[in-house]
Amino acid sequence: MVPGGLRYGSHYVVEYDSDSPWYETSLTITAEALRQEVPTEYHVFTHPPSDVRENLSRLGLNTRRLEEEDKLRILDTYDVMTGLATPEKPVAMQSKGREPFEAHHSFNLENWSSKVVALMQQGFAENEKKWLHLDDNTSILNHYTDEKAIIDTWRTRFIPYGRVRELAMIHSFVSGGL
Hints:
The protein is an alpha/beta fold. The protein has a single domain (10-174), classed as 3-Layer(aba) Sandwich (Rossmann fold). Helices cover 38% and strands 17% of the residues. It has a 6-stranded parallel sheet. It is globular.
C-alpha cells in the first residue's frame, strides 16, 4: 500500500467510503507492524477495545502479552463516547510521556492539546519514540468539534507532537463525513 514504507515523524491520511474494509485493513496494518516489532497505538473511536483485541487475536497475535510488554496500546475514545468509561482526569505524568496500555480519552480537543503541550515540554524517553499510531475513524471528531478548531489543533499540536515523538501517524476519515 505504501511502496516506500511509512516514515517516522510523518502523518498520513486515509479517506475511505463508509462501506469499505478500512477497519479490517487498519487491523491488518497493526498486526503486521506488531509482527515486525513496531510498537503500536491503536486509537478507537468507533469500536470497543475488546473488538480490537479479539480481531488482532484472530490474526494470530497474543494481545494480552503485547499489552503487558508495552508493545500494543489501545487508546479508547469509543467507551468514553458511549458512557462505558470516564475520560482521564488531568494529572501530572508519572514518567516521561508514558501512556497506559489502555487509556480512555475524551473528545475534548482542548484537553488533548494541553496534554500534548505538557508531554512535548517534558520530552520523551527513547522507548516512547518510533511508534505506529493508527485511528479507526478520526472523522468522529467532526461531530464534537468545529472544523477550524480541529485543523488548528492538528497544525499546532499533533503534527509537532508526531514529529517530536517520531510517530508514524495514520488518521482516517470517511469520505463526505458521516
